[in-house]
């Protein structure tokens, strides 16, 4: 309550002094000059933006310089305003006493503080974080310029509640929020930088690269949270009961999410599935694009993207066509008429596909007679490819077309089923017409 009384006392004195100054002609002059400077500044900034295309001028600049240039363009009105008000303040100091131009000084300081903070915050690519940090820091600077920072801090600290052995005040919440935003942003930036360095390490497998990147990010974020809590004076042991309740909630309500997170780490650690692998599971056949924290992105041959939960890839059967070896054996069955020589058919089939570019010369293709069918000799043509990521249906189609051309050229018939319908004893049919029987 004492903090409230002190703050109200300061506000009352400020209002009384403001009221006294309000009746002064110099107050009205300063307000008029500030309004004229604002109108001139923002009109001039709008005119400059129409005449000069800042976006096209900085397109080829480096990213940081381009962000600063865009921030200057966005805050051009404040820059002109600060310069004009500073000149007016200097002129007023020459003409009269400083007490009659203090509003111009305050306006200059507030505008200058906003410009400096906005230009520094422009280095943050996240627009939301950029705005939050800029407004928060400028609010602190404005309170300091107006001489209200100390009393405002005491007021915010006086509004508090106790949770166990922890005292949570409004000031603590605000400080923690601002510090967390800054430190988490720094952790993400550092994590992205280190992740790019890991991706450039060609001696690491893709799975290990992804796993290291995730561990680095998780470690940096954890350190950022611990550092902020220690900096603002929060004892982590005081949150033991709360964290235990959260753990129970995760165990019951977020079981599947945690299971997918752990399964994702397992997939990356044991390297059973890695980006670039061709897999088949649950009727889906495609190549693994990314392995995320919760799901694995599989791109199908028709361009569709399937998000498979990591838990399914750990607990269910998955065919990995390129787990340890990218070579895959495919099989094309076919049949020819009984009038054909099976030895010649085997040799012709192997020769027909020998020139196809995707078929590997070693292991060599092989053709086997596997069955005496009802109407055909049934064969199985087996061959190997080294790029299953390029698809298997298309190469099977090329093989069957090559067989068709070769069999047409050599006069080998591909039969179709023939069914003979035979009757047993002849049936006698009688037709009666009236009294006549035939």
Q: Can you put this structure into words, describing what you see?
A:
The protein is built from 15 helices and twelve strands. It is elongated. Strand 1 and strand 2 (166-169) form a beta hairpin. It is α+β, with helices and mostly antiparallel strands and 438 residues long. Strands 6-5-4-3-7 form a five-stranded antiparallel sheet. It has a three-stranded antiparallel sheet with strand order 8-10-9, covered by helices on one side. The protein folds into four domains: 22-147, no CATH class; 168-253, no CATH class; 273-320, SH3 type barrels, CATH 2.30.30.60; 328-410, Alpha-Beta Plaits (2-Layer Sandwich), CATH 3.30.70.100.
Number of strands: 12
User: Whole-number radius of gyration?
Assistant: 40 Å
Helix-strand pattern? HHHHHHHHEEHHHHEEEEHEEHEEHEE
Tally of DSSP helical segments: 15
Oligomerization state of this entry?
A: single chain
The percentage of residues in β strands lies in: 5-15%
Largest sheet descriptor: 5 strands, antiparallel
Give the distance, in angstroms, between the N- and C-terminal Cα atoms: 125 Å
Class derived from helix and strand content: alpha+beta
Query: Taking all residues together, what is the mean pLDDT?
Result: 78
């Amino acid at each position: 309550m004492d903090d409230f009384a002190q703050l109200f006392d300061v506000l009352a004195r400020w209002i009384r002094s403001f009221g006294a100054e309000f009746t002064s002609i110099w107050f009205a002059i300063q307000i008029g000059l500030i309004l004229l400077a604002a109108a001139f500044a923002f009109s001039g900034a709008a005119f400059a933006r129409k005449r000069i295309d800042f976006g096209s001028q900085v397109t080829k600049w480096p990213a940081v310089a381009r962000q600063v240039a865009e921030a200057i363009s966005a805050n051009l009105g404040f820059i002109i305003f600060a310069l004009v008000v500073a000149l007016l303040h200097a002129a007023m100091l020459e003409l009269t006493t400083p007490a009659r131009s203090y509003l111009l000084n305050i306006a200059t300081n507030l505008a200058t503080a906003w410009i400096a903070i906005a230009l520094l915050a422009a280095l943050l690519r996240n627009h939301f974080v950029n705005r939050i940090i800029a407004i928060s820091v400028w609010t602190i600077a404005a309170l300091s310029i107006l001489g209200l920072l100390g009393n405002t801090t005491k007021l915010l600290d006086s509004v508090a509640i106790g949770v166990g052995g922890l005292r949570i005040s409004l000031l603590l919440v605000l400080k923690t929020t601002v510090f967390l935003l800054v430190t988490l942003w720094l952790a993400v930036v550092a994590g992205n930088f280190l992740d790019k360095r890991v991706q450039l390490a060609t001696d690491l497998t893709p799975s290990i690269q992804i796993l290291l990147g995730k561990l680095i990010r998780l470690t940096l974020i954890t350190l950022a949270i611990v550092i902020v809590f220690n900096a603002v004076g929060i004892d982590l042991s005081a949150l033991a009961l709360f964290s235990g309740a959260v753990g129970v909630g995760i165990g019951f309500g977020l079981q599947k999410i945690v299971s997918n997170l752990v399964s994702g780490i397992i997939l990356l650690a044991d390297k059973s599935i890695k980006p670039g692998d061709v897999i088949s599971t649950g009727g889906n056949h495609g190549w693994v694009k990314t392995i995320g924290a919760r799901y694995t992105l599989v791109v199908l041959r028709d361009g569709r993207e399937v998000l498979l939960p990591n838990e399914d890839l750990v607990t269910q059967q998955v065919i990995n066509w390129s787990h340890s070896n990218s070579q895959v054996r495919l099989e094309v069955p076919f049949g020819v008429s009984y009038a054909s020589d099976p030895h010649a058919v085997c040799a012709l089939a192997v020769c027909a596909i020998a020139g196809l570019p995707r078929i590997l010369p070693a292991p060599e293709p092989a053709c086997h007679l596997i069955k005496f069918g009802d109407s055909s000799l049934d064969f199985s043509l087996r061959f190997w490819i080294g790029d299953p990521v390029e698809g298997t249906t298309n190469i099977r189609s090329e093989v069957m077309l090559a067989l068709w051309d070769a069999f047409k050229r050599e006069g080998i018939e591909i039969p179709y089923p023939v069914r003979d319908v035979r009757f047993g004893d002849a049936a006698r049919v009688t037709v009666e017409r009236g009294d006549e029987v035939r």
